[in-house]
Every structure is written in C-alpha cells, then in structure tokens.
Amino acid sequence: MESNPIRMSTSIENQVAIVTGGASGIGLAVAQKLNSLGTKVVLLDLDSDSLDQAKESLGGSAEIIQADVTNEESVNMAISQVISRFGKIDIVFNSAGITGHTGIKPHEVDVADFDRVYEVNLKGSFIICKTVIPHMIEAAYGRILLVASVSGKDGNAGMTAYSASKAGVIGLAKSIAKDYADTGVTVNAIAPAVVRTAMVEALPESQVEYMTSRIPMGRCCTLEEIAEMSAFILSPKNSFTTGFCFDLTGGRATY
Questions:
Q1: With a threshold of 0.70, does the pTM exceed it?
Q2: Domain containing 202 — which CATH number?
Q3: Which one is catalytic: 162, 180, 210, 255?
Q4: Whether 162 is catalytic
Q5: Backbone phi, psi, residue 249, to 5°
Q6: What domain range includes position 57?
Q7: Which of 27, 158, 33 is CA-nearest to residue 93?
Q8: Given pLDDT bands bounded at 50, 70 and 90, which one contains residue 11?
Q9: How far is CA 207 from CA 25, 69, 120, 144, in A?
Q10: Could you tell me if residue 11 is inside a domain?
Q11: What's the pLDDT band for 8 if we cut at 50, 70, 90?
C-alpha cells in the first residue's frame, strides 16, 4: 500500500503559498508567477515599505506580513497568521537572503558579518522549514523550495560567508527531504548563477563581472527563468523529486 499516493490534480490554483524575501528580487518574481497561476500568495519580508509596494505590484491580491526569518518567534507568529487566515500552507518559497561583505579574502571577513549571513541564509531557511512542515504533514502535502546559489556548489572567491551559507542551504534541503520523503512533502533547492537583482547590483562591479565570466552561456540568469522553473518545482507536477538542487547556472555547474 502506498503511503503517499500521487495527487491527481496538477494545478496550483487556490493553493496557499508563502514567499519569504518576497518584497523584491527573486522572491517577488516568483510571487508574481504564482499569483498569475491563481495561487493565494503571502509575502514575508522584514522591509515593510517594500512589502507595501510588492502588494501593489500584485494588484493588491497578496497578503503581506512583516517577519524576521532569523527569529523563531517572529516566524511562528507569521505562520500562525497564515494558518488562521487560510487554514493551510501548500507552498513555501524561501528567498530571504543577504550576501554580506564581499570582494574580500577570508582572513579579512568580520566574524559578526559571517554570523549575520549565516543567520539569514541558513538559520532562516531552517526556521522556516521547522515551522511550516508540521502543517504540511498534517495535510499530507507540501512543496518547499529553498534558494541556494551556484556559489554553494562551486564557491565564489571573495564571498566566503555567502558561499558557505548557501552550501549549507543545499545540505539542509537534501537532509530534510529524506526525513519527510514519505509524507507528501517535498523539499528542494535551486542554485542560480548571478541574477541582476538589487542585492547583486549592490555588489562591487568587479565581483559581478567575476561571477558572470564563469558562466559558459556568457550571460546572467533572468528572474523570469527562475520563476518558471520554481513554479514547476512548487507544483503537484513535481511529485517524485525531493532533496534535489536544481541548476540555473548557464552551464557553470553541471552536477
């Protein structure tokens, strides 16, 4: 007897999706894609002003909650609000992340900066998973997608804290996925190469040029490409892949 029968429906219409870091960049792009497919989108972000603008860009249809992914109490409160409002959580796209201080050698990295990058990128991913998974298990269904990076696979010079934290995100997805593989909950990661978001634009141009030069296709990944792939991974169509890190690197990482 199968413990986790495949869902017949392949649509994500009327599913409830939480997007962390949803006020801008990759998070907002994926939120817009999910919204266009009829998903009920809830944006979580620390930046309240950007959240208001993001909601407006989604035609006012999204719910917004100010939350800090590094704080378990803050995340618990946010998730409780979503459950109270919708009664379920089908999808989580965890995009909240920071680069920290880049373009420096490891011995120049400030430990406080390293800790902050770890807190947001890796600890935040863990807290989100820890908080939402019990609700998904109860429903015998869920899709979680964590945003990692090619730097977590391959390492980027000048980005010690970021590369280490994103490698941790990949390991986190692989480990958690195995623990819940028979529950109807899938946990995967995506590893984009450089994308021209506000976070990347804030990096030194030399750092961006270095990262782009390592992409065999010779160009950056686009937000639209990430949104399209993410929408599939987060859908019922992706029913037999969990613990995998999907590549969006233009040929840079091929494993």
A1: yes
A2: 3.40.50.720
A3: 162
A4: yes
A5: -125, 10
A6: 16-243
A7: 27
A8: confident
A9: 19, 27, 21, 30
A10: no
A11: low
Q: Which one, of 213, 120, 225, lies nearest residue 166 by Cα?
A: 120
Residue 224 predicted with pLDDT over 90:
yes
Q: Could you tell me if residue 111 is inside a domain?
A: yes
State yes or no: pLDDT of 1 exceeds 60: no
Please tell me the distance from the alpha carbon of residue 102 to that of residue 243, in angstroms, as a whole number: 29
3-state secondary structure the chain: CCCCCCCCCCCCCCCEEEEECCCCHHHHHHHHHHHHCCCEEEEEECCHHHHHHHHHHCCCCCEEEECCCCCHHHHHHHHHHHHHHHCCCCEEEECCCCCCCCCCCHHHCCHHHHHHHHHHHHHHHHHHHHHHHHHHHHHCCEEEEEECCHHHHHCCCCCHHHHHHHHHHHHHHHHHHHHCCCCCEEEEEEEECCECCHHHHCCCHHHHHHHHHCCCCCCCECHHHHHHHHHHHCCCCCCCCCCCEEEECCCCCCC
pLDDT tens-place string over residues 75-121 = 999 999 999 999 999 999 999 999 999 989 999 999 999 999 999 99
Do the domain assignments include residue 250? no
Can you tell me the distance from the alpha carbon of 75 to that of 15, in angstroms, rounded to the nearest whole number?
A: 20
Per-residue pLDDT, averaged over 224-245, amounts to 96
Q: Tell me if 174 is assigned to some domain.
A: yes
Is the pLDDT assigned to residue 149 strictly greater than 50? Answer: yes
> Is the predicted pLDDT of residue 208 greater than 80, yes or no?
no
User: Number of folded domains in the chain?
Assistant: 1
Please give the mean pLDDT across all residues of the chain: 92
Within 10 angstroms of residue 239's Cβ, the number of other Cβ atoms is: 15
